[in-house]
Amino acid sequence: MAFKYTFKKAIQQSISDKYIAEPMQRFLSNSSMSGILLFASAVLALILANSPMSEQYHDFWKQKFSIGFGERALSKTLHHWINDGLMAIFFFVVGLELKKEIIAGELREFKKAVVPLVGAIGGMVLPASIYLFFTHNTDYSAGWGIPMATDIAFALGIVYLLGDRVPLSLKVFLTALAIIDDLGAVLVIAIFYTSDLNLLSLGVGFIVLSIMLIANYIGIRNTLFYGVLGIGGLWLAFLMSGVHATIAAVLAAFAIPARVKVKEQEYIIGMNDLMKKFSNEEGNGMNILTSKQHYIIQDIKKYSTKALTPIQNLEYVMHPFVAFIVMPIFALANAGVTIKADVLSNINHPVFLGVFFGLLFGKVIGVYGLVSLGLKLKWYTLPDDMNNRHLIACGFLAAIGFTMSLFIIELAFVDKNLGVIAKMAVLSATCTSSIIAYILLLNNSPKLLNSTEIVDSN
């Protein structure tokens, strides 16, 4: 009877793993899925904003929510809470990725980071310059940061849809370029899109940050401790200081410990000892472990926790939440542009021209042009499996500025009409560059590769 029950449970567990757990895990770990969901959310927002429900759609995001008591309450619209609150989580994960890449990733060694660094610089400076060219002698120059951004989720979503047609080195190059690009965008927001400062609140924020850094230094690894200080102290203080709260999220991420308590070899030896102890313990022949077996497994869990870094644990846990909840909600709240009858008249507007050509041409020429110049000057070489076509495609992928560009629009323009024009330009450039990048990589046949070899480094 016990055997039948155990066999039945095993079959149920196997079915659950096969048809529920494993597909869900594959979905959450698939970069293309997050990009597709982000795109679908943007399309849904556009449909709602141009449907008979348009008024209800826009009014929904204007609902006010308050945190606090009485005069101490912080009251903002749902739209603001998404951009200042939920997006702070997005920037926190960006900060975790930045720190991880600097410590042990593609940005650790200068010779590995130099090519995407050069590409990122070209992909930030030229788009901003093109925007300023179209908007000089106007009141619209505040939007120069809009075409500087790259949306890594969208870009990698397109890359992963193509599978083996895209070499690993291109994925690594694009990821490193986008991470450096994100760092540049964070600095631009911190320096140029900060309102009047409340020095008292800013001082409190830096005191909390100092406490977090000291805690990191002395070895405190409890993520709850950093969460309470990061949200209740650092984020709230920055929110009230005038410095955009997303900067607090990045700073908080850099305060998270990135060291292990148990090193790799020590962990292997310790785990072997614990596994030997477990195998030497006699079981009771039932589903429930003996007390000694239970304690050994608890020791294994504790030992494994010491071999993991808090920064990687947080990134692992939070990345699916950001990719599948935060960013789609942000897209729903910000991509809903109501297209009016006079939409064609806005195509000649300096803001539209600056954003559209800044993204589509500025990014491509900036990334491809500056990297190619370095290759001709023999400052560096590209990986063997990357070629000229790949580099051009990376330029178009970098022109997908969706999430960060929409975010900066909200900071740059008080005038909602200018915001709508800028959003139309971002959406137009994102769609155009996505299609071109996809075609370039889709037609990446050996014959085409041989006809477009990268500049000879010799």
Task: Please tell me about this protein's structure.
72% of the residues lie in helices and 2% in strands. It is mainly alpha-helical and 458 residues long. The protein folds into 3 domains: 34-193 and 315-451, Na+/H+ antiporter like fold (Up-down Bundle); 195-243; 264-304. A two-stranded antiparallel sheet has the order 1-2. Residues 1-29 and 445-458 have low confidence and may be disordered.
- In whole angstroms, the N-to-C terminal distance is 75 Å
Number of domains: 3
Largest sheet: 2 strands, antiparallel
**Ranges with pLDDT <50 over ≥5 residues?**
1-29, 445-458
Give the overall shape, derived from the CA principal axes. globular
Mean pLDDT: 81
What name is given to the CATH topology of the largest domain? Na+/H+ antiporter like fold
Tally of extended strands? 2
Our count of helices gives 18
Which series of helices and strands comes N to C?
HHHEEHHHHHHHHHHHHHHH
Q: Mind telling me the CATH class of the largest domain?
A: Mainly Alpha
Strand order of the largest sheet: 1-2
